[in-house]
Amino acid sequence: MKEPPFPMLAQGKVRFVGDMVAFVVAETPEQANVGAELLKVDYEVLPSVVGLLEAVRPNAPQLFDDVPNNICCDWELGDKAAVETAFKKAAHVAKLSLVNNRLIGNPMEPRAAIAEYEPGTDRFTLWTTSQFPHVVRFLMGALVLNIPQHKLRVVAPDVGGGFGVKQFHYGEEAVITWAAKRVRRPVKWVASRSEGYVSDRHGRDHVTEAELALDETGKFLAFRVNTLANMGGYLSTFGPNIPTNLYGPLLGGVYTTPAIYCNVKVVFTNTVPVDAYRGAGRPEATFVLERIVDVAASEMGIDRVEIRRRNMIPKEAYPYQTPVLVQYDSGDPMGCLDGALVAADVKNFGVRKAASASKGKFRGLGYSTYVEACGLAPSRFAGRLGARGGLYESATVRVHPTGQVTVMIGTHNHGQGHETTFAQIVSEKLGVAFENVDIVFGDTDRVQFGMGTYGSRSLVVGGAALSKATDKVIAKGKKIASHLLEAAEVDIQFEAGKFSVAGTDRSKSFEEIAGAAYVPHNYPLEVLEPGLEEQAYYDPVNFTYPGGCHIAEVEVDPETGTVTLVNYTAVDDVGTVINPMIVEGQLHGGIVQGVGQALFENAVYDEGSGQLLSGSLMDYCMPRADHLPMMKVETHSTLCTHTPMGVKGCGEVGTIGSPAAVINAVVDALSHLGVTHVDMPATPNRIWRLLQNASLPVAAE
Amino acid sequence: MKPFAYHQPDQIPDAARLLTSIEDSKLVAGGMTLISTLKQRLASPVALVDLSKLGSLKGITDGGATITIGAMTPHAVVAASKLVQTKIPGLAALASMIGDPAVRSRGTIGGSVANNDPAADYPAGVLGLGATIVTSMREIAADKFFLGLFETALGPGEIITAIRFPVPLKAGYAKFKAPASRYALVGVFVAQVADGVRVAVTGAGPGVFRVPPMEAALSSNFDPSAIAAIKIDTDGLTSDIHAEADYRAHLVTVMAKRAVDAALS
What we know:
The structure holds two protein chains of two kinds.
Chain A: H1 29-38, H2 52-55, E1 71-78, H3 80-89, E2 92-103, E3 112-118, E4 123-128, H4 133-144, E5 152-155, H5 171-183, E6 187-190, H6 193-199, E7 203-214, E8 220-232, E9 259-268, H7 282-300, H8 304-311, E10 320-321, E11 327-328, H9 333-343, H10 349-358, E12 362-371, H11 379-384, E13 393-399, E14 405-409, H12 418-430, E15 437-440, H13 458-484, E16 492-495, E17 498-501, E18 507-509, H14 510-518, E19 533-538, E20 547-557, E21 562-573, H15 580-600, E22 631-635, H16 653-670, H17 684-695
Parallel strand pairs in A: 4-5, 8-9, 14-15, 21-22
Antiparallel strand pairs in A: 1-9, 2-7, 3-4, 3-6, 7-8, 10-11, 12-20, 13-14, 13-19, 16-17, 17-18, 20-21
Chain B: E1 5-7, H1 12-21, E2 25-28, H2 34-39, E3 47-50, E4 60-62, E5 66-70, H3 75-80, H4 82-87, H5 89-96, H6 101-106, H7 109-115, H8 122-128, E6 132-135, E7 139-141, H9 142-145, E8 146-148, E9 151-152, E10 160-166, E11 170-177, E12 184-193, E13 196-202, E14 209-210, H10 212-220, H11 245-264
């Protein structure tokens, strides 16, 4: 893999519009803006390239002198020979070319940061809108500015939305931290929305060719995928990991396809760097797979639900080893499908379609039976795949002398409601009232090292660490209780906040045990330390594999090409549900983001100038409340076999499952006209163009 | 936003005087376009002359065969006006489709018409109804007012005080909203008036324009079917990331049919 350096400020060459060239520190934002306007940058305009297909052509403008053809890495996964053999035996081969459109995350709060330097202690503090303050401390302190970790505090309090965009270490954080020491004043920076468009890391942007080999009964024999993935102008924090490690291993989906081969060429272009955006690699994989399944079904004349059933991994077959590294521990895709067929009232779809037709509208139904891998991640596994960090999580449970609890956790909350979910876990396990549990996160001075929040990992990995730390508190409490109750430790039971001697009515409350731990007069000091505070780190043994069945129903107005999402049903297996309302909220938000990609959102560059054309909310269409129907969201859970609570994670499932469901519905609505694929976003103009082409008489060969 | 002087006159002549005496000064009505331009530092007027204290510029008056809407009347007031809803329902409908509730509560008819954004809604209503733009100096017929991209017949120091709309026999507006901005990707206003039919299109090109073939067809048969086959020439139409010119041309016919439908309903 080619790893050209990513300087804080461009050195000699600007590689994308939005690449930082200089920064101005002033007393007021107005002065800083005036200063920036006075800067005269003497640009020599070089040829640029923004599109993937153009960037890999011979003689394309090359971003880095030592990166020929702009190819950062040429990655492959799977058994190429086995796939080739299977294709030779195939009764049918379905082919699909598609584009996965570039997205811009648009969290409600733009990125912002304040850096301070204290000369007396030689300490830096960076307040930043980060999803992982400890990792920023490590990356910026150890790898960028050479500040010892103990001299750098990174604070990320409540942050107004992240979606991955705030997961990376950004140059702005480093330059203002550097500047704070130089000017001996706190330095504040807040991105405008326009600045965010050209500097927040973008998502997706693939061009893919896929082929699915099937036998005469519609059984999948092999799947071959070739993808070009746009990296933008530099490697961002997780950049090349997304279209490779988080993409290829998902190409098995919920099917028994025995042979899979995937090649990904990761390509530099003169665009904003691309990195993880909600779903990160997995929506792209799901889109390719769930689309080509529909294409194959249509070409072979097999019902779309039936072809899925014929290839689905049965519930009894779990744990299931796929040919692309991952082993699914649990799942019931057929159960999710059956539940969704009922919830979406599929049996009466024909009636609804006829009603639409009577108004001159085309109605379509689309399925996405998908699985994803989240709860990032088993460190060893990640290391084998080339990741350079561990992916465990940490939690400290501090029981105060009066029995209230403060939890320090290494995950980060930016809108997910972790304070609620984590406090529920502690409250239920320790029998402490919910309001007596406080969750602390987002401050490297207050919280032990943690990896932050992304990849639907907070409950799965952070919650597991929290569960383990809580178990340690209970174990120590039992030792204290055994001493106080003069009973053997094995006879002490803990339930509903009470330590009791089995078979007796003798007991001590959780508060009494906490009190004894901190006032150890009557206490086994010879064998037990005072205090009641426990810490745990949890490194997952596997990914978790939530998934499910999403069914989208759309209506197309052929006169204008407008697609209206009229019904949406999701039946998901997210494992144990701790808080149903939060799970439903995550599903709603995730689905809306996927619908956004399918129907509205598109980051567009001008090919000649490399300027971002969709650089504002006036030009980049975010999904809005009036674009969406009421959604039906249900769970059909199987328990994860390797997480302490059976949880699987739910932060990204909506975004991963939904684009394919929506586009499959759009294609279904237009299938009577011979339409076999629609690229995202399915805008009115694009649909109208397809209809125009479909209605033109076919030219004689 | 760069610093600027701020004036809030309470008489029209004072406003006009400020506008002519201070070079690089700008009028601000609802500010729905100007303020965001200032915030993006794309404009840096020396002074803003705020029209909000000019009480005579607000309100809607019934002139029998006409309705006069003061230049500083917000879109939401026009949309909710019983008078407009009764006499020119198509115009009330147009006002209700502008932007979003926040924009409709601040944005004004005078500001919209003076700005002449190529995708704004009001220019279609004003031109489609053959309204008269009343200014601090004169009256200008809609057909002579809109000169092209953000250009109007307004002279230096001239302030729109009201728009006078003739009450039509029938009128309707149909708008295909640009999905992100909610401006008109294409908006068509159709009005049947005493001496014929007027069809005005916004959003499709660099400025609002009329469609004589549709006007002729609808004059003899005021029904959507009369214009279904009329194709718009794509020459001069806008092509951008939201819509290609031929799609916009197609939408003109579709929206014109829907505007006729709206007028008939």
